[in-house]
Design brief:
Length: about 550
C-alpha cells in the first residue's frame, strides 16, 4: 500500500484532473479558447490546461488587464470544466517569448543569459533580481485576481513558467552568474545530498570526488554548470510560488503550484541544445525536489512514444516526494495505451495531452462524435475509459489492485496475476453484442489500434474493467489437478463454465456504481469484452 499525495482537490475532496492542454495561442481570448473547451468535453475530460500570458496581462509595467482571465472563468463555468492556468512568464520552452515588450526591449534592466561565446541570447537570466521581482509581482497580481474573482473555484492549480531552462547555452556566463558559479555550492545543497546518500545528484558529486566544499566545478565536475542553473532556476521559481501561495494563506484551499519539464532524454542529450539547461530533467530532479518547498509537483511533459522510454520517464518522476502528474503528453497513438501504465503502475494523479483542439476537425458550435478527427479517435476513446474509471482511481491507486492492460506490438494476449485468479486479456476480435455488430468479425484490430485499459480487482471475487479492444478471461487459481477439470477453452474463446455471479455494464454516479445493462449468455460466454462506449464493466465471480 502506497499513500498517494493527491495534490488536486475540489470542494476539499481529492480530484483527478483529466483532459487536455490548449495550444499555445488559445488563451488570448474567448474565441480562441472555445475549441479547446469543446474538445475537452468530447474527451469526457474534466479539466482544461490553458496559458495566461505575462505580456497580455501586464502590457505596461504595473498596469494589469485580466480580461482574458475573466473570459476563461466564464467559459469554464459554461462548460462545467476545471482549469489549470499555465503562467507563461520568464520562461517558455527555454526562452522568453512571453515576457512583455517592456521587458524584452530593456536588456540593461532585465538581463539576458550570456552564452560562453559572450553573446546575449533570447533567454532571461535567473540571476537578474529585476526580472525576478517583475515576474513575481505579475504572478502575485494574477493570484490576487484569481482569489477575488474565481468565486466558483474553477482554477485547481497553477503551473509556474513553462518548461523553464536555457536553450542556447549550458549556463549563464554573465558576471552575476559567473560569481555564483565560482562561489561555494550552498551548504543546504550539501546537507540534502548527504541526507539522501543516493540518487543522480549525489552520484555526480561522488564521481567528482565527493568534496565537502568547493565551487560548482569542484563538486560536480563538467556537470557543474547545468546543476548550478537548475539550482538557480528552481529557487527562482520557488520564491515566486511562495509569494503566490501567500495569497491563499488562511484559506482552507492551498492553490497547488507545479513546474513542468522538457525531458532530457531526447536527441543528443546535450543541455542547452537538446533540452533547456537547468530544467528539472531526471539528472537534476533531486535539486528541484530538495529546493522547492513551495512547489507541489515537478511534472514531466512526456512525448516519448516507445513503452520503454515512456515508462522510464514515469519511473523518474513518480517518487516518494513527488507524485506523477503528466500535464502534457503526445497526441500520437502510443499515448492512447501508454497512459494506462502511468495510471496503474506509476499512480499518476492526473493526465492531459497537448493541443487538445486537434481532436476537432472543424470550428463548430456544437460538436458531437462525428467531428472527432479519425487520427485522434483512439486517444479520445482511451481518455473516455479513464474518465469512466476516475472514482476507482481515487479509491484504489496505490493499493496494487489496479492493473494496466496494454497490448504491446504483436502481442496476442496479456497474462494478469490477480488475487486468487488468473486473468488473460485477449486481444483481437470475437463476439461482442448487437451494438458492436460491425466489430464482430474483425479478427485483427486496425494496425495501430491496440487493446488497452484497466482491470481493478477490488476484492477476491469482484472486478471492474474499462478499456477497448480486449476481452478478459478469468479463472480461479487452483491446484493443477483441479484446474484441469474446468474447461477454459481459449482456442474457442469460450468461458461457458466461468462462475459469474453477474456481469454488468454501468457508470459511477459520484462514488456509487449504477448498473446500466446486464450481460449474460452469449454476451458473457466469450469473455468480458470492453469497448470505450460501454462504460465500466462490473464482474462478480464465485467459487
Ligand atoms: C511543449 C511545450 O510545453 C508546449 O507549450 C508546446 O510548445 C509543445 N511542447 C509543442 O509540442
Amino acid at each position: 500500500m502506497k499513500t498517494i499525495k493527491r495534490v488536486f482537490t475540489v470542494n476539499g475532496k481529492p480530484f483527478f484532473p483529466l483532459g487536455g492542454q490548449a495550444r499555445n495561442s488559445s488563451g488570448y481570448n474567448a474565441l480562441e479558447a472555445e475549441t479547446a473547451f469543446q474538445a475537452v468535453k468530447l474527451l469526457h475530460g474534466n479539466t482544461l490546461e490553458i496559458p495566461v500570458y505575462w505580456e497580455q496581462i501586464e502590457p505596461e509595467e504595473g498596469q494589469f488587464d485580466f480580461a482574458s482571465v475573466d473570459a476563461l472563468l466564464e467559459s469554464a463555468r459554461r462548460y462545467g470544466l476545471k482549469l489549470v492556468l499555465l503562467w507563461f512568464g520568464t520562461w517558455k520552452n527555454g526562452n522568453m517569448e512571453y515576457a512583455p515588450a517592456w521587458v524584452k526591449t530593456n536588456p540593461q534592466r532585465f538581463k539576458r543569459v550570456i552564452s560562453a561565446s559572450r553573446q546575449d541570447i533570447w533567454v532571461l537570466s535567473s540571476h537578474c533580481q529585476a526580472t525576478f521581482e517583475a515576474d513575481r509581482s505579475a504572478f502575485v497580481a494574477l493570484c490576487r485576481y484569481l482569489k477575488q474573482n474565481d468565486t466558483e473555484h474553477a482554477i485547481i492549480a497553477l503551473q509556474i513558467e513553462n518548461e523553464p531552462g536555457i536553450l542556447g547555452s549550458d549556463r549563464d556566463y554573465g558576471p552575476e552568474a559567473q560569481a555564483i558559479f565560482e562561489a561555494h555550492v550552498p551548504q543546504e545543497l550539501l546537507i540534502k545530498m548527504k541526507e539522501a546518500g543516493t540518487g543522480s545528484v549525489y552520484n555526480l558529486w561522488q564521481a567528482a570526488g565527493g568534496l565537502e566544499s568547493g565551487n560548482w566545478t569542484a563538486l560536480f565536475g563538467a556537470e557543474g554548470g547545468e546543476l548550478m542553473t537548475a539550482w538557480s532556476i528552481a529557487t527562482y521559481i520557488d520564491r515566486i510560488a511562495e509569494a503566490g501561495k501567500a495569497i491563499w494563506q488562511n484559506e482552507t484551499f492551498d492553490m497547488p503550484m507545479y513546474i513542468n519539464v522538457w525531458l532530457g532524454e531526447g536527441g543528443w542529450r546535450v543541455p542547452g541544445e537538446s533540452y533547456p539547461s537547468g530544467g528539472a530533467v531526471s539528472k537534476v530532479l533531486d535539486i528541484y525536489c530538495w529546493c522547492t518547498p513551495h512547489i507541489d509537483l515537478i511534472a514531466p511533459d512526456i512525448y516519448i512514444a516507445d513503452s520503454k522510454g515512456y515508462e522510464a520517464a514515469c519511473a523518474s518522476y513518480a517518487r516518494e516526494d513527488n507524485s506523477l502528474f503528466v500535464p502534457e503528453s503526445g497526441p500520437q497513438g502510443a499515448n492512447a495505451w501508454n497512459l494506462f501504465r502511468a495510471i496503474a503502475d506509476y499512480n499518476a494523479i492526473g493526465y492531459a495531452f497537448f493541443a487538445v483542439e486537434h481532436v476537432l476537425g472543424q470550428d463548430i458550435s456544437t460538436p458531437d462524435d462525428s467531428y472527432i478527427r479519425p487520427e485522434t479517435r483512439m486517444l479520445v476513446e482511451s481518455f473516455r475509459c479513464v474518465a469512466a474509471a476516475i472514482p476507482l482511481l481515487l479509491q484504489y491507486q496505490g493499493t496494487g489492485k489496479i492493473h494496466a492492460v496494454v497490448q504491446e506490438e504483436a502481442m496476442g494476449a496479456q497474462h494478469l496475476d490477480l488475487d486468487g485468479y488468473i486473468g488473460m486479456a485477449q486481444f483481437g476480435g470475437g463476439h461482442l453484442d448487437w451494438r458492436h455488430w460491425q466489430q464482430r468479425n474483425i479478427t485483427d484490430p486496425p494496425s495501430n489500434e491496440r487493446g488497452r485499459g484497466l482491470v481493478v480487482q477490488i476484492s477476491r471475487h469482484e472486478f471492474y474493467v474499462v478499456g477497448a479492444k480486449f476481452r478478459l478471461f478469468l479463472r480461479p487459481k487452483l491446484p493443477s489437478e483441479q484446474a484441469l477439470h474446468i474447461s477454459y477453452a481459449r482456442e474457442h474463446q469460450l468461458t461457458r463454465l466461468a462462475h459469474y455471479v453477474l456481469v454488468d455494464e454501468g457508470h459511477f454516479d459520484e462514488e456509487n456504481f449504477v448498473i446500466d445493462r446486464r450481460r449474460n449468455g452469449d454476451e458473457t460466454d466469450f469473455g468480458v469484452w470492453v469497448e470505450s462506449d460501454v462504460g465500466v464493466v462490473h464482474i462478480v465471480m464465485c467459487d
